[in-house]
Write a structure and sequence with these properties.
With 64 residues, the protein is an all-alpha fold. Helices cover 55% and strands 0% of the residues. Helix 1 packs parallel to helix 2. The longest helix has 20 residues.
Length: 64
């Protein structure tokens, strides 16, 4: 892959790592550190963390 592509993916990884760190997540479900995960794993972990942050007791967040 090109240098530019690798640079962009690294920047995206850094953004996801920062957002996960703000949510106090330091390890992925696989047990690896978030700093060792690739971009796809980090996206997956952020989605899981987002679902954990949803307040299901609030009326606007009830799906059912």
């Amino acid at each position: 892959m090109g240098i530019l592509y690798e640079s962009v993916i690294q920047q995206k990884r850094n953004i996801l790592i920062k957002r996960l760190a703000e949510l106090n997540i330091s390890k992925a479900q696989s047990g690896k550190s978030i700093h060792d995960c690739d971009y796809e794993e980090l996206k997956y972990e952020l989605v899981l963390a987002s679902f954990r942050e949803i307040d299901t007791e609030a009326a606007e967040n009830n799906w059912y």
